């Protein structure tokens, strides 16, 4: 339809028709209707004329016949004269009607041309209106009843509005709140003809103006993309509505809570208060409190707030005031803003009362716990020691000054471990983390600690809901001892005997069997019924006779078990059964005149003994081969390397002759590589010596300050080569310890060389040293790439190298040698690293009381 309208409008434009006004369009339509009526009347007249013509045509033959008769008779009658007159009148009327019809047809054609011209002008006007509507900055949606809506015009692409049928899916391109409001407005427009004007936001944050109207029975909505000024005004309007909504929501919320809140102008005068504030100052309404200037806080408190509150640092403190005649404590927060200030007060009177009661209760509990014989320690939310009783001090024998410093729980465990007062653990880190997991646990944790001094403690650790934990140490030494002996007596017939691979049978003084284990019955090939409790040893011997019936067997056992000698004797021996089994037996007297008879299957043991003998011989030969290898490598590798290094140094002297730059560079490479190879050989030999158990530490008293000076001088070349600086942090006087000087120096050099290798050029590494009692503790830190968590557990393994991130590769023996030498000194080494932040290795070397030699274990 639109195409036809456009086509007609174009035809009208090409015909040079001018547009019609609204009055002209109405007149043209009226003329068209009149023309249609005339055309209908004309059609009816033409039908009448046609009928008259037919009458005339029928009358013509009759007239001709009458004329012939009149001519023949020359005789006219009156009736014939009337008929002729009528015919002539009809013919005249027909001629007149034809003339009138021709004239009216001309008039009708003129009016039809005018109507077509008016229609063409109207279509041209419609085309112009459609062109105006199709502006790119607006789009119109028209609903005509329940028919599918018509879309006219387009919106700019930057608005994100779809150009197809998805335009009406407002939720796809409008913000949710705008889409919901628009759909509700459209429903009211279509159902109740309620016009609307609103502003909507697109997902791309563009602003559109939507206008809904009803005209001619149709509902239409026009979407207009606003220009910059109008868009900015619309955005400000939206922002204002949003802010007003937020302010209203906050004020409603503040009115609903039971915490007094207020707002003041720059002079300190109240401008707004909530309902809780009005109730606190006993006002009928918040407005009354504002009008009368009723203050909830004292003048001193208000002046203090005004003096201390700043825009950067709000006032926050507990203030006491009187509310409804009662002393009340409020936690007050007052914020200073350019337009004045705002504040809120939280009633903490109950909290203050509970806090005071809690302090009294804790003090009472502390006095009670201090008199208990059970050691108790309480740690706060930061895991620091908050309380301990006298029994705790007596149990661990710790320094009061150390306990009063409120040490961390982890630090306390480390102190106890260093004093060798905690159980020895294979993995100290895992054990400590498991112990400290109580702070994250929901239930009470309990564990048994078997201390090195022989005591057994049951440790209860309970986490506090507010943070922290309580540790209770119950001494179970005597109880555990009694339980152990009791369990041993109870399980001697069950767990111990039934699960032995040796055959065991216990007989009473009357010679009747008391118990036997499955291994005993399997070795002798008897059933459980034949060896049931109460069976006499003679009947048991008869049941075992098919396996062995010689006199040195069950007859001898019966004599030993049923003997009435005052001194019962034990007996041992070996039996070879008819089945080929070789059994070692033992007759052992037990308390209460009981006797235990045991049998051990030695068939496999003999074979195992032979295999062990052969393996022991092979191990002995392998050990000899290893020692020979160490001696051979020591001679075969060190001697050539010594010659290479010596000749290299000789080539550098002036006596041999001058060297060019390339030769000098090659000599330096040879010297460096030889030194590295010599170090590698020495490391391998040291590890081999440790593994062989033949390394001895030569203890001597070492001045630690001299040791650090010596180490810094020896590592200087390596640090200069790597472009790394060394920072040594140590007290003015470290004192001395008794250790192996060479191995201790080797430990420091290995750690410093490793740190320099993994440090970036231009950075520095640090060596921090201090004393903890008689122990020498030092830490080497670098700012290198660090070690990933999955690699940190393998850094002390041999040949585990991180050369990809270091300046030069190595065999991966440095840290392994450090670990071995520290272990020989009965010390410990730990490593802490974080990827991208560097690595820290901490070593603890204890000092021995007197110089002595220690072998590697």
TrEMBL record:
Residues 105-139 form a coiled coil. One of its GO terms (cellular component) is plasma membrane. It is an enzyme of class 2 (transferase). It comes from the Bacteria. The keyword Transmembrane applies. It catalyses: ATP + protein L-histidine = ADP + protein N-phospho-L-histidine. Its EC number is 2.7.13.3. The chain crosses the membrane at residues 81-102. CDD domains: HATPase, HisKA. Residues 1-27 are annotated as: Disordered. InterPro entries: HATPase_C_sf, HATPase_dom, His_kinase_dom, HisK_dim/P_dom, HisK_dim/P_sf, PAS, PAS-like_dom_sf, Sig_transdc_His_kin-like_C. Residues 632-849 form the Histidine kinase domain. PROSITE patterns: HIS_KIN. One of its GO terms (molecular function) is histidine phosphotransfer kinase activity. Keywords: Coiled coil, Kinase, Membrane, Phosphoprotein, Transferase, Transmembrane, Transmembrane helix. This is histidine kinase. It comes from Rhizobium aethiopicum. The lineage of its organism: Bacteria, Pseudomonadati, Pseudomonadota, Alphaproteobacteria, Hyphomicrobiales.
